[in-house]
From TrEMBL:
Organism: Isoptericola luteus
Protein name as it appears in the record: ATPase
Keywords: Carbohydrate metabolism, Kinase, Transferase, Xylose metabolism
UniProt key word Transferase: yes
Lineage: Bacteria, Bacillati, Actinomycetota, Actinomycetes, Micrococcales
Signal peptide per UniProt: none
Gene3D superfamilies given in the database record: 3.30.420.40
């Protein structure tokens, strides 16, 4: 959690805010939009949040653009209020700012900038035929949620909006364009739209040509490369805040235009930055509404695996991603039920306290969960071949139903599908020195971290900023862009050329190691032998029990 500034630091931070030497990061997550203000030393000094929820409209998981705009303004206003309360000033400018958001999905626009269909988020699993055909064509795994799968599925289905598509992008790309007018995207987020060649740090030329030939008969003249955002690597000048963008973010008129923006990124990339894991043999796990692991590869994988996506770091290095649609939401729901039960007993408790008590009980559970099984499938889960989900708690008459076993099983349920994907990565011989964990699940010290170490049989590190997550990560990327552009003397409103790689000096990995994480204290949990054996036994039952989950989807 963010720590308040000490009294002797307050005046220095106030001065930095007034002088515009802070950086701002905004991340649009699944359930919260968070804004994080970062000082010149990269430490978070203020934050703001706005809660929102996706909606299922006509069978599509979506967020409206009105909700995006309202959420941005709400999170920013909450941040400004926090700054005023802490430091007695209102920020008018920043050294740089950045936007990140849930990766993938589909936001198609016409030539006038009008959205042609409701935003189709990463949660939608309606692109099976397109993803399968593209994976076969490219010899490269194309997940259901990738933007190109959504576009090609729309082509296959002859959707009437397709001829009008003049551009398409991700949520981060949309917000960035609303703030700057620039149709660009960070390479990490771009690699979830269309495969990226790590050698060029741009869209894969061979696959672009294959796609042209594939759609030529159905949509002659469709040039997907012309529809995609320009790819930029970390450190590039991605444009400047326009008058309209400043008014969108801050309707009060206090925020001035002209602020430098870093390339917009996906939440996977900002998670890597937030944990300092952008070098080979490092990786991170982000746990929220979804849960995913990112492992930076030393060399390409030998085979195509549907459980593993190939994306990149914000600098363009190849990453294997294990992405699970379902994360900690079901655990949160059970914590809510227990909180309601406490209130019914006349003992209402703070939600964080209830969640902490539930997690703490997990440590006393049997290593294998006492025979219980938990499936956190609120949505479909491509890794296990499910188009829909049904949350389940399953036990046999001989299972030991206790609070401790229940709690441990719910945490195991968060990690279950992820562990199946990590097994595939292990089978490829990929070496991991340490996995860094972040997200709200790890704010309760020592519980989820220890159980995760047992689940993946690898050390798991958590830093002081584990609860800050991607909003802090994109603020750090904004600081990196400010430093890189100062070093390169960039002055234009959009000085990036090519893929933007020319502006990345110093290298992102060096910047993080030497300037951001040099003094960060990490808490490292080594895998406990009993936890490793217990989770392995649990995972065997979990894999076998997927038949029950499939039956529930069919029956309910």
């Amino acid at each position: 959690m963010m720590q308040a500034a000490q009294p002797d630091d307050t005046s220095a931070i106030r001065e930095a805010i007034v002088a515009g030497r802070t950086t701002l990061g905004i991340e649009l997550g699944s359930t919260n939009i968070k804004a994080c203000l970062v000082g010149p030393d990269h430490a978070p000094v203020a934050s703001g949040t706005h809660a929102w929820e996706n909606e299922l409209a006509d069978g599509v998981w979506t967020y409206s653009l009105d909700a995006v705009h309202t959420g941005l303004q709400g999170a920013y206003a909450d941040l400004v209020a926090d700054v005023e309360q802490r430091f007695g000033v209102r920020p008018t400018t920043y050294a740089a700012l950045g936007v990140s958001a849930m990766m993938h999905g589909y936001l198609p626009f016409d030539a006038d900038g009008e959205l042609l269909t409701p935003f189709r988020t990463w949660r939608n699993t309606s692109t099976g035929p397109a993803a399968a055909e593209l994976s076969e064509l490219f010899g490269y795994n194309i997940p259901l949620r990738w933007s190109i799968a959504h576009l090609y599925q729309a082509i296959l289905d002859d959707e009437p909006h397709v001829p009008q598509v003049a551009s398409f992008t991700t949520l981060a790309g949309y917000v960035h364009r609303a703030l700057t007018g620039a149709h660009v995207l960070g390479v990490g987020d771009a690699s979830g739209m269309f495969p990226v060649d790590p050698a060029t740090r741009d869209y894969d030329a061979r696959m672009l040509e294959q796609f042209r030939h594939l759609v030529a008969a159905r949509r002659p003249g469709l040039d997907v490369e012309g529809l995609l955002p320009q790819v930029l690597t970390a450190g590039a000048d991605a444009g400047h805040l326009t008058v309209e963008g400043a008014a969108l973010l801050d309707p009060t008129g206090t925020l001035r235009p002209g602020v430098l923006l870093c390339p917009p990124e996906g939440d996977a990339g900002t998670g890597m930055v937030a944990t300092g894991s952008v070098a080979p043999r490092t990786g991170n796990i982000s746990a929220g509404t979804s849960i995913f692991a990112m492992v930076v590869l030393e060399e390409p994988l030998t085979s195509v695996h549907h459980e593993l996506d190939l994306v990149t770091t914000p600098a363009g290095d190849l990453v294997a991603m294990v992405h699970c649609n379902n994360g900690a939401s079901e655990l949160d729901a059970w914590a809510g039920v227990l909180g309601q039960f406490a209130a019914a007993l006349g003992r209402p408790a703070d939600p964080d306290a209830v969640f902490g008590a539930l997690l703490g009980a997990a440590l006393d559970g049997a290593p294998d969960g006492g025979g219980l099984l938990a499936y956190n499938y609120l949505a479909g889960e491509p890794i296990t071949g499910l188009d829909e989900g049904r949350p389940l708690l399953v036990r046999t008459p001989g299972s030991r139903l206790t609070l401790a076993n229940f709690a441990r099983t719910q945490v195991y349920g968060v990690f279950g599908t992820l562990a199946l994907g990590m097994r595939v990565l292990h089978g490829e011989g990929v070496a991991i020195d340490t996995m860094f964990a972040h997200g709200g699940l790890f704010r309760t010290a020592g519980v989820a971290q220890r159980l995760l170490a047992g689940a993946i049989d690898a050390p798991v590190a958590v830093g002081e900023t584990a609860g800050e997550g991607g909003a802090w990560g994109i603020a750090v990327l904004a600081a990196f862009a400010a430093a890189a552009n100062a070093a390169n003397g960039a002055t234009g409103a959009n000085g990036a050329t090519g893929t933007g790689g020319e502006a990345t000096a110093p290298a992102l990995d060096n910047y993080l190691r030497e300037r951001v994480f040099a003094d960060v204290v990490l808490d490292v949990a080594e895998p406990d032998a009993a936890d490793v054996a217990g989770f392995a036994a649990y995972l065997e039952r979990y894999a076998a029990g997927l038949a029950v989950e499939r039956a529930a989807v069919d029956a309910l």
